[in-house]
Target: Dihydrolipoyl dehydrogenase family protein
Amino acid sequence: MPTYDAIVIGAGAVGENVADRAVQGGLSTVIVEAELVGGECSYWACMPSKVLLRSAAVLETARALPGAAEAITGSLDVAAVLERRTSFTHDWKDDSQVEWLEGANIDLVRGHAVFTGPRTLRVTASDGTVTELEARHSVAVVTGSVPLLPETPGLAEAQPWTSREATSARSIPASLAIIGGGVVAAEMATAYTSLGARVTLISRGSLLSKQEPFAGEAVTDALRKAGADVRLGTSVDRVSPAGGESPAAHTLHLSDGTTVTAEKILVATGRTPRTGDLGLEALGLGLEAGGWLKTDDSLRVLSGDGSPIDWLYAAGDVTGRALLTHQGKYQARIAGDAMAARALGKPVDTAPWGVHSATADHAAVPQVTFTSPEVASVGLTAHEAEQRGIRTRVIDYDLAGVAGASVHSDGYAGTARAIVDEDRHVLVGVTFVGSDVGELLHSATIAVAGEVTIERLWHAVPSYPTISEVWLRLLETYGRPVAE
Model:
C-alpha cells in the first residue's frame, strides 16, 4: 500500500494549495481527483464565468465614453466570447494543471476516494482500477460542493442547467429562465442577457440578499434596463413541457399565478457539500454523510462531540465557512501549514490572526459579484454588525461625486458604504457598487483585516483623480479626528 505523509482528496484550486503547502512544509503528499485537476473554479465557475461577463462589461464602459462610443460599429461577437471562454478552460483538458503538480512534487492518483479507516483510502479509477493509500499523519478533504436542486415537480424532467452547463455552453439559448437570487443567478443573468438570450430571473426574495440592500437594488435595476425580466418575491411551483411549436421549451408555473416559458432553465438556488460518498460516516467519528465538515480555525475537522480530529482536515466549500475560491485557498494555506507543523512537531499558532488560524473567515471575507454594476464587499453589512451588537455608524457616499468616477465614464453611478465600529474606531465592513469597483476592494480588505483605525486611515492618501478618492470622501463624511 503506497504510504505518504499527507493525502489530499480533491485537486481543485483549494486542494492544490493544501498539497503545495504540505509539500513546502516537508511532507510527502499525494492528491486524489475523480474529475479534472484544477476543479470547479478553473473549468465551470470563477474563470469561465468571468470571461463570459468581461467582453460585455468593456463594451458597456466604452459606450458610456464619448470618443470611444463613436468607434463602436457593431455588437458583441458572441462566438468570439465563447471561443475566448473555451481558451481559458483549455477546452476542458487538465494537461497544464497536471504538469504543475509534477513540478510541485505532488503525486496524483485519479479516481474516487472512499475512507476504509482512519488515514486509509480506497481509490477507484474510471476503468475500475483500485489503489489503496495510507497517510502517516493527515488526510485533507477538499471535495468542494455541488449545486442544490430543489424538488420542484417537473423540474428534473426538464433537465435544467446548473452553473456547470451555464458556463460551458457551446451556444446561447433563445430564452433562459434562471431560478435563484444569489451571485450565480445575478452573474449569469447579466452574462446571458448581454449574449442575446431573453432572460427571466425568478427569486423568492430580493436579489443578492446577503449584501447591503442597495447592491441588489442597483443590479435589479440594471438587469431590467438591459432587457431582463426580473421577478422578485415569487417561486416556481412546478414545471411542465411548453408544447406547441417548441417541444424543447418549458413552462414554469409561479407561486404568484403567472407563467414563464423558456428554452432552458438554470437552477442557481444554492450548493450542498460533496461529502455523501466518501465513507466518512464509517469512521465512527460522528460525521454525517453528505453534511458540511465543521472545522476549528486551523481547519481540523470537528467530530460529532465537537472535539478536533487530529489527523483529519478540510478546506474550501466543503466546510461551509465561506464558499469562495479565494477564501478556500486562504484556508488551504493555513491547513497545509498546520498539517506540516503538527506532523513535524513544530509550534502551531492558532491564536486569532495567528499563522495557523483562519480568523478572516469570521471578520474579513471579501467578495466581488461581477454583475453590471459590480458589487464588491468585505466584512459585515450594517445589519450583520447590528446583529453582533456592535455600536456602529454607517457612512454612505455617492460615487458620482468622485472625480475619478467622472473620468472613468460619463454618467457614472455607484455607492460606497463603510461600517465603523464606534468603540474601536475601525472599519468592520465596506461595500462598493459601481463599474470596476472590484479593483477597490483589496484596500478595504486590508483596512478591515488589519483593523486600521480611522485616525490612521486619514494618513493613507488616495491618488487623484481615481475612484479610490472615495476613501477620502468617506473619511470627510465621518469627520476628521481632533487631538484630545
User: Anything to note?
Assistant: The chain has three domains: 3-38+94-146+272-360, 156-269, 373-478. DSSP finds 15 helices and 22 strands in the chain. The mean pLDDT is 96.
